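Following up on my earlier thread - several people asked me to post the actual chain instead of describing it. Fair enough. Here it is, all 103 residues.
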Amino acid sequence: MRLATPIAILVLLAVLVGCGSSEETTSGAPVHPADTTQQVRPTETTPELRAAFLRDPSCRHPQGASRWGCLIGPYGCQGVVTDRGWSVSCSKPGRSVAFTVRP
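Reply from S.P.:
Thanks for posting it. Predicted structure:
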């Protein structure tokens, strides 16, 4: 009985104060509309970025490493060894690409 009263008070306080979020709150990060004027260049397609990753000597898998990274133009790429091959993700501001490479 002694524990029931404080728990009931805490529950009522939580309901009165409001545990959830409201439309008036923000996440703290500024919100900007997406730039729809930027065009994707044909050289930035996933197959071509994948080919550039395989061609670039700085993107080669270092022996014994489970993770590695390199730069392909404006893209920062990171490779991770998985049971299906290499999982590669490349990104630049506003765009990201992911693909799998079999070694």
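The two ends are 66 Å apart (CA to CA). That should answer part of your original question.
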